[in-house]
Amino acid sequence: MIVLGLAFEGVPSLVLDVAMTWLVVAVCLRPDHLLRRGLANAAMRYVGTISYGMYLMHMLAMNAVRRTLPDAGSLVRFVGASALAIAVASASYYLFEKRILDFKDRIGGKRRALVAAPARVSPADG
């Protein structure tokens, strides 16, 4: 339904927004959904890894595709913007985000282990 809505001009964006929201809620609430196998494959897990960068870059990618392909249809613009957002987010992840996350793990690993460990109370203390 969502892909069909993108393929045809004139579909109200509210319809697409509600459909996508419904899809996300349905997938989150039920672990035994039909999309489980598809969402568990390597490509989708990779998109999950770079999703923050995609979130940050998707409007820039969309505007770049609109300016580059002004006469293209909605589906072509969607695919082009998605591909560009994935490419830019991948570069951002490997050049910046992964390095920062690795650094955070190196300096914060011991602190998290101390915070996560439960306090031990001996029977004599109580």
How would you explain this protein's 3D organization?
With 126 residues, the protein is an all-alpha fold. The chain folds into two domains: 1-37; 41-116, no CATH class. 76% of the residues lie in helices and 0% in strands. It has six helices and no strands. It has helices at 2-7, 13-29, 36-39, 42-49, 51-68, 74-116. Helix 5 runs antiparallel to helix 6 (74-116). The longest helix has 43 residues, at 74-116. It is flat and about 50 Å long.
Characteristics:
126 residues, mainly alpha, 2 domains
Summarize the model shown.
The chain is mainly alpha-helical and 126 residues long. Helix content is 76%, strand content 0%.
Name the structural class.
mainly alpha
Number of strands: 0
Helical fraction: over 70%
What is the averaged pLDDT score? 81
Uncertain stretches of 5 or more adjacent residues? 113-119
Q: What is the string of SSEs from the N terminus onward?
A: HHHHHH
Domain tally: 2
Biggest pleated sheet: none
The coarse overall form would be: flat
Number of helices: 6
Which band does the percent of strand residues land in?
Answer: under 5%
Compute the separation of the termini in Å: 62 Å
- Radius of gyration from the CA trace? 21 Å
